[in-house]
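Tutorial handout. Part one gives the primary structure; part two gives the three-dimensional structure as tokens.
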Amino acid sequence: MNNFILKTYKRIVVATFCIVCASACNDDFLDRDPLDAVSDASFFNTAADLQSYVNQFYSSTLPRYIYTGGALGAANVGLDLNSDLMVQNDNPRLLQEGASSLAPVTSSTWTSGYSNIRSLNYFMENYDRIPSRDEQTDQYIGEGYFFRAWQYFQMIQSFGDVPYIIQVLDPADKESLFGARESRHQVALGVIQDLDSAIANLNWKGTGSAAPAGRVNKETAIVIKARVALFEGTWERYHAANGTPFAVSGQDGTNFLQMVAPAIDELIDQYFHGRGTIQ
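Part two.
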């Protein structure tokens, strides 16, 4: 009996040893993705991956229409600071004729803006790794285009001409990293192109993956397209007409202004003709 138990024990030990040795020689057994982090190789495989990626831009890019006090909570309060609708108490001279001010050496609008743009460019270069496209994936792809357009629109309003980068740059590519600014006219055309891609992919409000409240939808992209076209068109038109230093050479805003009515007509067709009644 004791000999039988001893032989059985030896067999178990030998079998365990063989299994361990075989596993140790198998690279696949040791080559495992980390359980506490997402790897590049395992991402961009599902619609949920795309959704998870674009979710970050709702808080880092879009304004917050709430007031909870403090710098972040009051973000919506300052949306009109660059207009003639609101005077900031610490710098009212900027709204006086002939007044001037020195631009700061650094700007969080610039640094955070290009940080978001880089992340969005990474998304654009990788979303096509998804095995197949459907309504869900198209919705989140459309959101990516929308957020990049929105970010560059903010840059135009703050800085005018800016470097226009739509691919992930190699840190060693100094020429691209320190490239010249692109004409605001060309950047605005890029914004419109991204918004057209967003419109083509996004769902209408309340449908499909755009059903959750607060989700970017086709209506959002159409309205912002009209807003961008109207903003840039009137900028070019009136600065050209008045011969200011901010006029865009060779442009009078006509091409942008002609985009406004067709964009709004698409909404009118959808709500009055497509659905029958205004929503």
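Part three, for discussion. DSSP finds ten helices and no strands in the chain. Residues 43 and 249 are 44 Å apart (CA to CA).
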